[in-house]
Amino acid sequence: MKPQDFDVYKNMLYAKSGYVITIDKAYLLESRLAPVIKKHGIANMDLLTMKMRSNPPTALVDDIVDAMTTNETMFFRDQKPFDKFRDVIVPGIIKAKGPNCTIRIWSAACSSGQEPYTLGIMMKENALKWAGVKFEIIATDLSREILDQAKAGKYSQFEVQRGMPIMMLVKYFTQTGETWTIKDDIKNMVQFRQFNLLDPMEQFGTFDVIFCRNVLIYFDQQTKGKILEKMAKRVHKHGYLLMGGAETVLGITQAFKPLEGERGVYIPA
Length: 269
Ligand SMILES: C[S@@+](CC[C@H](N)C(=O)[O-])C[C@H]1O[C@@H](n2cnc3c(N)ncnc32)[C@H](O)[C@@H]1O
Description:
Elements: H1 3-17, H2 26-39, H3 45-53, H4 58-68, H5 80-97, E1 102-108, H6 114-125, E2 134-141, H7 144-152, E3 154-156, H8 157-161, H9 166-172, E4 173-176, E5 179-182, H10 184-187, E6 190-194, E7 207-212, H11 221-232, E8 235-243, E9 256-258, E10 265-268
Protein backbone atom coordinates (compact mmCIF):
# COMPACT_ATOMS: atom_id res chain seq x y z
CA MET A 1 0.00 0.00 0.00
CA LYS A 2 1.31 3.46 -0.92
CA PRO A 3 2.04 5.72 2.08
CA GLN A 4 -0.38 8.39 0.78
CA ASP A 5 -3.16 5.75 0.61
CA PHE A 6 -2.31 4.47 4.09
CA ASP A 7 -2.60 8.06 5.39
CA VAL A 8 -6.22 8.25 4.24
CA TYR A 9 -7.12 5.47 6.70
CA LYS A 10 -4.69 6.56 9.39
CA ASN A 11 -6.11 10.11 9.48
CA MET A 12 -9.73 8.96 9.37
CA LEU A 13 -9.19 6.43 12.17
CA TYR A 14 -7.44 9.01 14.35
CA ALA A 15 -10.18 11.59 13.84
CA LYS A 16 -13.04 9.15 14.46
CA SER A 17 -11.68 7.04 17.31
CA GLY A 18 -8.33 8.36 18.56
CA TYR A 19 -6.60 5.16 17.40
CA VAL A 20 -3.06 5.60 16.15
CA ILE A 21 -1.80 3.24 13.45
CA THR A 22 1.65 3.28 11.90
CA ILE A 23 2.71 2.29 8.38
CA ASP A 24 4.22 -1.01 9.61
CA LYS A 25 0.57 -2.04 10.24
CA ALA A 26 -0.39 -1.59 6.56
CA TYR A 27 -0.64 -5.40 6.17
CA LEU A 28 -3.13 -5.47 9.06
CA LEU A 29 -5.17 -2.73 7.47
CA GLU A 30 -5.46 -4.66 4.22
CA SER A 31 -6.36 -7.96 5.87
CA ARG A 32 -8.91 -6.40 8.25
CA LEU A 33 -10.55 -4.36 5.50
CA ALA A 34 -11.03 -7.35 3.17
CA PRO A 35 -14.41 -8.30 4.78
CA VAL A 36 -15.54 -4.64 4.73
CA ILE A 37 -14.80 -4.39 1.01
CA LYS A 38 -16.84 -7.56 0.46
CA LYS A 39 -19.75 -6.40 2.64
CA HIS A 40 -20.03 -3.08 0.78
CA GLY A 41 -19.69 -4.68 -2.68
CA ILE A 42 -16.50 -2.76 -3.50
CA ALA A 43 -14.25 -4.47 -6.07
CA ASN A 44 -10.86 -3.86 -4.46
CA MET A 45 -8.75 -1.84 -2.00
CA ASP A 46 -7.90 0.88 -4.55
CA LEU A 47 -11.58 1.57 -5.15
CA LEU A 48 -12.20 1.65 -1.40
CA THR A 49 -9.42 4.23 -1.02
CA MET A 50 -10.98 6.31 -3.81
CA LYS A 51 -14.33 6.20 -2.02
CA MET A 52 -12.67 7.21 1.24
CA ARG A 53 -11.19 10.28 -0.44
CA SER A 54 -14.61 11.58 -1.60
CA ASN A 55 -17.18 11.91 1.19
CA PRO A 56 -17.67 8.21 2.07
CA PRO A 57 -21.01 6.97 3.54
CA THR A 58 -21.15 6.88 7.36
CA ALA A 59 -21.91 3.13 7.38
CA LEU A 60 -18.72 2.43 5.44
CA VAL A 61 -16.61 4.64 7.73
CA ASP A 62 -18.12 3.00 10.85
CA ASP A 63 -17.36 -0.47 9.47
CA ILE A 64 -13.74 0.50 8.78
CA VAL A 65 -13.32 1.89 12.32
CA ASP A 66 -14.91 -1.28 13.74
CA ALA A 67 -12.60 -3.45 11.69
CA MET A 68 -9.50 -1.59 12.81
CA THR A 69 -10.21 -1.28 16.54
CA THR A 70 -9.42 -4.13 18.92
CA ASN A 71 -12.30 -5.68 20.84
CA GLU A 72 -10.22 -8.19 22.81
CA THR A 73 -11.76 -8.75 26.26
CA MET A 74 -12.71 -11.51 28.69
CA PHE A 75 -14.65 -12.16 31.88
CA PHE A 76 -12.70 -11.33 35.08
CA ARG A 77 -9.90 -9.97 32.87
CA ASP A 78 -6.68 -9.89 34.94
CA GLN A 79 -8.73 -10.85 38.06
CA LYS A 80 -6.87 -8.40 40.38
CA PRO A 81 -8.89 -5.28 39.42
CA PHE A 82 -12.06 -7.16 40.35
CA ASP A 83 -10.57 -8.31 43.66
CA LYS A 84 -9.66 -4.68 44.36
CA PHE A 85 -13.16 -3.60 43.40
CA ARG A 86 -14.55 -6.00 46.04
CA ASP A 87 -11.94 -5.57 48.77
CA VAL A 88 -10.79 -1.94 48.46
CA ILE A 89 -13.03 0.14 46.23
CA VAL A 90 -16.57 -0.77 47.31
CA PRO A 91 -15.60 -0.67 51.03
CA GLY A 92 -13.92 2.73 50.40
CA ILE A 93 -17.06 4.13 48.78
CA ILE A 94 -19.33 2.73 51.51
CA LYS A 95 -17.06 4.42 54.06
CA ALA A 96 -17.42 7.74 52.21
CA LYS A 97 -21.14 7.54 51.36
CA GLY A 98 -22.65 5.24 53.97
CA PRO A 99 -24.00 1.65 53.84
CA ASN A 100 -27.26 2.55 52.03
CA CYS A 101 -25.71 4.48 49.17
CA THR A 102 -25.96 4.20 45.39
CA ILE A 103 -22.70 3.32 43.67
CA ARG A 104 -22.49 4.44 40.03
CA ILE A 105 -19.99 2.62 37.84
CA TRP A 106 -18.93 3.37 34.27
CA SER A 107 -17.39 0.67 32.14
CA ALA A 108 -15.93 2.90 29.42
CA ALA A 109 -15.00 0.92 26.29
CA CYS A 110 -16.87 -2.20 27.43
CA SER A 111 -16.46 -4.14 24.17
CA SER A 112 -18.78 -7.21 24.06
CA GLY A 113 -19.88 -6.77 27.68
CA GLN A 114 -17.65 -9.12 29.66
CA GLU A 115 -16.36 -6.33 31.95
CA PRO A 116 -19.76 -4.89 33.04
CA TYR A 117 -21.31 -8.37 33.32
CA THR A 118 -18.38 -9.46 35.51
CA LEU A 119 -19.23 -6.51 37.78
CA GLY A 120 -22.92 -7.50 37.80
CA ILE A 121 -21.99 -11.05 38.80
CA MET A 122 -19.77 -9.71 41.59
CA MET A 123 -22.66 -7.67 42.93
CA LYS A 124 -24.86 -10.78 43.05
CA GLU A 125 -22.09 -12.81 44.66
CA ASN A 126 -21.62 -10.17 47.38
CA ALA A 127 -25.29 -9.27 47.74
CA LEU A 128 -25.47 -10.14 51.45
CA LYS A 129 -22.38 -8.10 52.32
CA TRP A 130 -23.60 -5.10 50.30
CA ALA A 131 -27.30 -5.50 51.15
CA GLY A 132 -28.04 -1.77 51.53
CA VAL A 133 -26.12 -0.67 48.45
CA LYS A 134 -27.77 0.05 45.09
CA PHE A 135 -25.49 -0.33 42.06
CA GLU A 136 -25.84 1.34 38.67
CA ILE A 137 -23.65 0.15 35.80
CA ILE A 138 -23.36 2.23 32.62
CA ALA A 139 -21.38 0.48 29.88
CA THR A 140 -20.32 2.30 26.73
CA ASP A 141 -18.36 1.60 23.58
CA LEU A 142 -17.73 3.32 20.26
CA SER A 143 -18.81 0.34 18.18
CA ARG A 144 -22.54 -0.23 17.63
CA GLU A 145 -21.84 -3.73 16.38
CA ILE A 146 -19.94 -4.78 19.51
CA LEU A 147 -22.63 -3.16 21.70
CA ASP A 148 -25.30 -5.24 19.98
CA GLN A 149 -23.30 -8.33 20.95
CA ALA A 150 -22.95 -7.02 24.51
CA LYS A 151 -26.69 -6.35 24.82
CA ALA A 152 -27.53 -9.83 23.51
CA GLY A 153 -25.31 -11.29 26.27
CA LYS A 154 -24.56 -14.39 24.19
CA TYR A 155 -21.12 -15.97 24.37
CA SER A 156 -19.39 -18.93 22.77
CA GLN A 157 -17.93 -21.82 24.74
CA PHE A 158 -14.49 -20.33 24.07
CA GLU A 159 -15.48 -16.90 25.40
CA VAL A 160 -16.92 -18.21 28.66
CA GLN A 161 -14.07 -20.65 29.19
CA ARG A 162 -11.58 -17.76 29.05
CA GLY A 163 -12.39 -16.37 32.49
CA MET A 164 -15.71 -17.39 33.91
CA PRO A 165 -15.38 -19.81 36.85
CA ILE A 166 -17.49 -22.91 36.19
CA MET A 167 -19.62 -22.42 39.33
CA MET A 168 -20.59 -18.94 38.19
CA LEU A 169 -21.10 -20.07 34.62
CA VAL A 170 -23.82 -22.54 35.59
CA LYS A 171 -25.34 -20.09 38.07
CA TYR A 172 -25.57 -17.00 35.85
CA PHE A 173 -25.86 -18.35 32.28
CA THR A 174 -28.21 -20.61 30.37
CA GLN A 175 -26.78 -22.95 27.77
CA THR A 176 -28.21 -23.66 24.32
CA GLY A 177 -25.83 -25.92 22.39
CA GLU A 178 -22.50 -24.09 22.18
CA THR A 179 -23.99 -20.73 23.22
CA TRP A 180 -24.14 -19.40 26.76
CA THR A 181 -26.58 -16.54 27.45
CA ILE A 182 -26.25 -14.38 30.52
CA LYS A 183 -29.40 -14.49 32.67
CA ASP A 184 -31.79 -11.53 32.64
CA ASP A 185 -31.18 -10.52 36.26
CA ILE A 186 -27.52 -9.79 35.43
CA LYS A 187 -28.32 -8.39 31.97
CA ASN A 188 -30.83 -5.94 33.45
CA MET A 189 -28.19 -4.52 35.80
CA VAL A 190 -26.26 -2.99 32.89
CA GLN A 191 -27.31 -0.02 30.73
CA PHE A 192 -25.46 -0.08 27.41
CA ARG A 193 -24.96 3.13 25.42
CA GLN A 194 -22.91 4.03 22.35
CA PHE A 195 -20.31 6.65 23.24
CA ASN A 196 -17.05 7.94 21.79
CA LEU A 197 -14.45 8.75 24.45
CA LEU A 198 -13.35 11.70 22.29
CA ASP A 199 -16.74 13.39 22.93
CA PRO A 200 -17.86 15.53 25.91
CA MET A 201 -18.77 13.38 28.93
CA GLU A 202 -21.15 15.64 30.89
CA GLN A 203 -24.26 13.67 29.81
CA PHE A 204 -23.28 10.81 32.13
CA GLY A 205 -23.29 12.73 35.42
CA THR A 206 -20.77 11.69 38.06
CA PHE A 207 -19.45 8.24 38.94
CA ASP A 208 -17.99 6.52 41.98
CA VAL A 209 -15.90 4.18 39.83
CA ILE A 210 -14.69 4.34 36.24
CA PHE A 211 -13.26 1.26 34.56
CA CYS A 212 -11.26 2.55 31.58
CA ARG A 213 -9.17 -0.48 30.77
CA ASN A 214 -7.20 -1.52 27.72
CA VAL A 215 -8.35 1.25 25.42
CA LEU A 216 -6.10 4.27 26.10
CA ILE A 217 -3.16 2.08 25.16
CA TYR A 218 -4.15 2.61 21.49
CA PHE A 219 -4.13 6.43 21.74
CA ASP A 220 -1.35 9.03 21.67
CA GLN A 221 -0.32 11.00 24.80
CA GLN A 222 -2.39 14.03 23.89
CA THR A 223 -5.60 12.04 23.40
CA LYS A 224 -4.99 10.02 26.60
CA GLY A 225 -4.49 13.28 28.53
CA LYS A 226 -7.68 14.86 27.19
CA ILE A 227 -9.78 11.77 28.00
CA LEU A 228 -8.35 11.40 31.51
CA GLU A 229 -8.93 15.08 32.27
CA LYS A 230 -12.57 14.79 31.17
CA MET A 231 -12.92 11.65 33.30
CA ALA A 232 -11.48 13.44 36.33
CA LYS A 233 -14.48 15.80 36.13
CA ARG A 234 -16.86 12.82 36.01
CA VAL A 235 -15.55 11.02 39.09
CA HIS A 236 -16.45 11.92 42.69
CA LYS A 237 -13.66 13.12 45.03
CA HIS A 238 -13.91 9.81 46.90
CA GLY A 239 -14.05 7.89 43.58
CA TYR A 240 -11.70 5.57 41.70
CA LEU A 241 -10.37 5.01 38.20
CA LEU A 242 -9.15 1.58 37.09
CA MET A 243 -6.86 1.20 34.11
CA GLY A 244 -5.35 -1.77 32.27
CA GLY A 245 -2.12 -3.49 33.26
CA ALA A 246 -0.12 -1.70 30.53
CA GLU A 247 -1.67 1.71 31.19
CA THR A 248 -0.92 4.54 33.62
CA VAL A 249 -1.78 8.18 34.33
CA LEU A 250 1.83 8.93 35.20
CA GLY A 251 3.41 11.39 32.79
CA ILE A 252 0.04 11.97 31.13
CA THR A 253 -2.12 13.89 33.60
CA GLN A 254 -1.98 15.21 37.14
CA ALA A 255 -5.76 14.97 37.50
CA PHE A 256 -5.39 11.44 38.96
CA LYS A 257 -2.75 9.89 41.20
CA PRO A 258 -2.02 6.22 41.96
CA LEU A 259 -3.71 4.75 45.03
CA GLU A 260 -0.75 3.70 47.14
CA GLY A 261 -0.12 -0.03 47.18
CA GLU A 262 -2.94 -0.75 44.69
CA ARG A 263 -1.49 -1.16 41.20
CA GLY A 264 -3.82 -0.01 38.40
CA VAL A 265 -6.10 1.91 40.77
CA TYR A 266 -6.12 5.73 40.63
CA ILE A 267 -7.89 8.42 42.65
CA PRO A 268 -8.57 12.08 41.86
CA ALA A 269 -5.51 14.19 42.73
C1 LIG B 1 -9.51 -3.94 23.89
S1 LIG B 1 -11.18 -3.51 24.17
C2 LIG B 1 -11.19 -3.35 25.95
C3 LIG B 1 -12.42 -3.95 26.58
C4 LIG B 1 -12.44 -3.95 28.11
N1 LIG B 1 -12.38 -2.62 28.65
C5 LIG B 1 -11.34 -4.81 28.67
O1 LIG B 1 -10.41 -4.29 29.27
O2 LIG B 1 -11.39 -6.03 28.50
C6 LIG B 1 -11.18 -1.82 23.59
C7 LIG B 1 -12.57 -1.28 23.23
O3 LIG B 1 -12.45 0.13 23.06
C8 LIG B 1 -13.39 0.54 22.09
N2 LIG B 1 -12.99 1.88 21.60
C9 LIG B 1 -11.99 2.20 20.77
N3 LIG B 1 -11.93 3.50 20.57
C10 LIG B 1 -12.93 4.05 21.31
C11 LIG B 1 -13.38 5.38 21.49
N4 LIG B 1 -12.80 6.42 20.89
N5 LIG B 1 -14.45 5.57 22.31
C12 LIG B 1 -15.04 4.51 22.93
N6 LIG B 1 -14.66 3.23 22.78
C13 LIG B 1 -13.61 3.01 21.97
C14 LIG B 1 -13.33 -0.55 21.04
O4 LIG B 1 -14.50 -0.58 20.26
C15 LIG B 1 -13.15 -1.81 21.93
O5 LIG B 1 -14.38 -2.44 22.16
